[in-house]
Specification:
The complex is a heterodimer of chains A (100) and B (724). Chain A is 36% helix and 20% strand. Chain A is α+β, with helices and mostly antiparallel strands. The radius of gyration of chain B is 28 Å and the shape is globular. Classes of the chains: A alpha+beta (100), B mainly beta (724). At the A-B interface, α2, β1 and α3 of A face β29 and α5 of B.
Chain lengths: 100, 724
């Protein structure tokens, strides 16, 4: 079973610098792992202003139900990806990512 | 919140023909404004080419209207009109075979003659209760009586369900027996009890299978209590054990008619596109197609979320003026700050071409993706696409499954969706939405407008109906970015066009991939089966890859002996939705035969820009001589540098193995290809959905735009191409 090494802050920095596109193999493994959660209660974002604003949200038990907005809003999808990356990092490593 | 939306009775219309617009104001009664616009570009992202529309100021339907919410009645069933034979049933026996797929989710009516809600209606019905237990239900004068079988049914298992009522004693008997015993089964015995109420039915109530009915003020009746699963061989006998009706679902499988083989010929009809040609209880696996042994395909799979036609009232109609230019149009609906665009295609007059080139709108593919949920419901979606980004339309459709599914979706019972229909609002065939489907294709019309090229618009469904005749008058046909779904008639039409010397610009990726069919009796209904291979969100059940409408094998065209490479030189190899890349020219791009393509293009790397991060993006195609790329085809350029989100498509390899991603596998690339055909024709293929997303870069002055323009100018020139 794959586990995220919490000491590999360099991989988190790599993602922060370039959330989309070609990644190192080690980062890609983390992304594949993070992005394997089932839909139930998984994170998503809701576009609240077209091309300008996205809100952090979470699915309920099924995707037939409304999603719940969690509060944070972002000015770019890159920021949203990064915030959720940090949330998952904490969940899977037990440690917060202390980088912006 | 989606406040207003609509659809038309047709997607393609010609001058002189009339199109109907049907609108629902989801917030209730109130005014709205409608205007006809010509769509040029739907990409409203900052930094993109920008949303561009042109008001058809003299359209007589432009104006203010009074709207209201219009309802949708989804869910499939069989309706048998009321008849005297049903009236005389003092005692009776109901029986059928069932293969339930969603037991325990609400009370689901298997068959009967019932009007009203389950708990207050009138009539008799067999059902599966909300606890999964079979049930015989009587209703009269506001009273309900139930006889419940104590053993709940299990999903995806065949049972014989029988209920008998003695008219003299009012004794009722109910039995549900699995057709094959399994380990752990316990013996079952019939449940019986004396009914406390006398069975009555209302003489105008139809007999139904897979639902019961509720009176509807506007339409007479609507289905309710839909059964999810297969039903086979429903039968009704009277109190003296004489056959009243025995419906044989193995007859007329390709249509909507349901044939009664009993003495009264009480034929019925399918409502809302249940899936026919389903394997029955007796399927032997000796045949894989219903045409060979229809008696083994005597089951119909019903779903509560099937939908053919919203059947909304028409708000306004428009007869297309003879002078209206061919193009992609929409009715722009506005109420307050809310808006919707209801698109349609205005074709040139039949038999005429008003421009040398036609853009072939991929209406079959648009239908395949219609109202899809897969971009957040598919378990691998986030790994392929990144974070699920939900638009207002997504949030709306998540809870409004009555708007019907795409062929990418699963029904609520987990089975794959085989049907799509255009007779409903389709929220992802719209401008200002994700750059996919119609909205991505508007990049092509935008580029044609920007370059001053006159063009006609034609579409898949009309190609299916008219074949070569639709194409024959054009010097060149341009495809959309993703012409993925083709019927046999469509494919033959394009192949015949090329054989006759036509020129084809395939400006997309993953084209000509799935084999589909259109319903002969229900306009706008398209059927497909995912088969057992190919990049797909669901897999057909064993034996169910044959289309009900035509009995053709569905699935990949490649498996019907017509790989995309045979038509356009390239075929699907990989997809990734993170970031695109560029093409690098190959020696063949300097071949004299290709000089016209690269005239004025000095760069060796092309397409390293665009809305997708590169012109080679999203879904990619490559050559493969083994399955049809012509030997003389020039592979002009190939993309490189794709990420490891891209992997070699499952249908292209015998077994998954390490080294299949975009970093390691040399197969993960898009090939740009040119070749000459018979009688002076030619094909140019880009092998990438993302190509059109680069056309507008730098004010349409870039090497992708230049290459596209070079090809188009040569393709509409009369000089024939010579096969080398």
């Amino acid at each position: 079973m794959f586990k995220v090494d919490p000491s590999r802050i360099d991989l988190a920095r790599e993602f922060r610098a370039k959330p989309f596109g070609r990644h190192s193999d080690e980062l890609q493994r983390i992304l594949n792992f993070f992005r394997s959660d089932p839909v139930a209660h998984n994170f998503c974002v809701v576009c609240t202003r077209p091309h300008q604003e996205w809100a952090l949200a979470r699915f309920r038990a099924t995707s037939r139900e409304p999603v719940d907005l969690l509060g944070p809003v972002y000015g770019s999808l890159e920021d949203a990806e990064w915030d959720i990356f940090k949330l998952r990092w904490r969940r899977h490593t037990g440690q917060a990512l202390e980088i912006d | 919140m989606i406040e207003i939306l609509g659809y038309t009775d047709r997607l393609a219309v010609r001058p002189g023909e009339t199109i109907e617009f049907k609108v629902s104001r989801e917030t209730g009664a109130g005014p709205y404004r409608a205007d006809i616009v010509r769509l040029r570009c739907g990409d409203d992202r900052p930094g993109g080419p920008g949303f561009q529309e042109e008001l058809v100021a003299d359209a007589v339907v432009n104006g203010d209207y009074q709207g209201r919410k219009q309802e949708i009645n989804c869910g499939s069933y069989v309706n048998v009109p009321p008849t005297a034979a049903f009236n005389a049933l003092a005692g009776f026996e109901l029986s059928c075979l069932i293969w339930p797929t969603l037991p325990g989710v609400g009370e689901q009516t298997v068959m009967g003659r019932w009007s009203g809600e389950c708990d207050e209606g009138t009539g008799y019905a067999l059902s599966i209760g909300s606890d999964g237990k079979p049930c015989l239900r009587f209703g009269a004068n506001g009273r309900i009586w139930r006889l419940v079988f104590p053993v709940p049914v299990t999903a995806r298992r065949w049972y014989r369900l029988t209920a008998r009522v003695d008219s003299k004693t009012s004794e009722a008997r109910l039995l549900c027996v699995p057709l094959e015993e399994r380990w752990g089964d316990h013996p079952v015995v019939p449940s019986s009890a004396r009914s406390s109420i006398k069975v009555v039915t209302e003489t105008d109530t139809p007999f139904t299978i897979a639902a019961h009915l509720i009176r509807d003020e506007r339409r007479g009746w609507r289905g309710a209590g839909h059964f999810n699963g297969k039903i086979e061989a429903p039968e009704l006998r009277d109190g003296d054990d004489r056959l009243v009706a025995r419906w044989d679902f193995a007859q007329d499988i390709s249509g909507i008619a349901i044939r009664d083989t009993g003495p009264h010929r009480l034929d019925g009809a399918c409502i809302n596109l249940p899936t026919r040609a389903m394997t029955g209880h007796n399927w032997t696996a000796e045949v894989m197609n219903w045409r060979q042994r229809p008696e083994e395909y005597a089951a119909i799979h019903f779903h509560e979320d099937d939908l053919y036609d919203c059947a909304w009232d028409t708000d306004f109609t428009w007869t297309i003026p003879q002078t209206l230019k061919s193009g992609i149009y929409a009715a722009r609906l506005c109420t307050g700050a809310a808006e919707d665009y209801v698109p349609f295609f205005v074709l040139p007059p039949k038999g005429q071409a008003t421009a040398p080139v036609a853009f072939l709108a991929s209406s079959a593919t648009y239908l395949a993706y219609a109202n899809s949920h897969d971009h957040y419901e598919d378990p691998v979606a986030e790994r392929c696409h990144g974070l699920a980004v939900l638009s207002p339309a997504d949030l709306f459709l998540m809870q409004r499954r009555d708007f019907g599914l795409s062929t990418y979706d699963h029904h609520r019972d987990g089975s794959g969706s085989c049907w799509s229909s255009r007779l409903r609002p389709i929220l992802n065939i719209r401008p200002k939405r994700a750059l996919w489907s119609l909205n991505a294709d508007l990049h092509i019309t935008d580029w044609l407008e920007a370059t001053g090229q006159a063009y006609d618009v034609i579409d898949d469904e009309t190609l299916h109906k008219e074949g070569l005749a639709l194409l024959a008058n054009y010097s060149c046909i341009i495809t959309g970015t993703h012409p993925e779904y083709f019927s046999t008639a469509m494919l033959k039409g394009v192949a015949s066009y090329l054989d006759a010397g036509g020129r084809l610009m395939y400006l997309g990726g993953n084209g000509f991939y799935w084999r589909v069919a259109f319903h002969e009796e229900l306009p706008g209904a398209m059927e497909m089966r995912r088969g057992e291979a190919g990049t797909r969100m669901w897999t057909s059940e064993p034996g169910e890859t044959g289309l009900a409408t035509t009995a053709e094998p569905s699935g990949m065209w490649r498996h019907s002996g017509y790989a995309p490479q045979r038509l356009v030189g390239v075929g699907f190899i990989s997809e990734g939705f993170d970031s695109g890349s560029f093409y690098r020219r190959l020696p063949a791009s300097h071949d004299p035969r290709a000089h016209f393509i690269f005239a004025g293009v000095e760069e060796e790397i092309v397409g390293d820009f665009g809305v997708f991060g590169g012109a080679a993006a999203l879904e990619l195609d490559i050559v493969n001589p083994k399955v049809g790329t012509p030997a003389h085809a020039l592979r002009l350029a190939s993309s490189e540098g794709h990420s490891n989100v891209y992997v070699v498509a499952q249908g292209e390899v015998g077994a998954n193995h390490p080294g299949m991603d975009g970093i390691e596998s040399p197969l993960v690339r898009a090939d740009m290809v040119f070749f000459e055909t018979l009688k002076g024709g030619a094909v140019f293929s880009t092998g990438s959905i993302g190509w059109a997303g680069s056309l507008a870069h730098d004010g349409y002055d870039n090497n992708i735009s230049r290459i596209t323009r070079n090809v188009l100018e040569r393709f509409i020139a009369p000089e024939p191409f010579a096969v080398p």
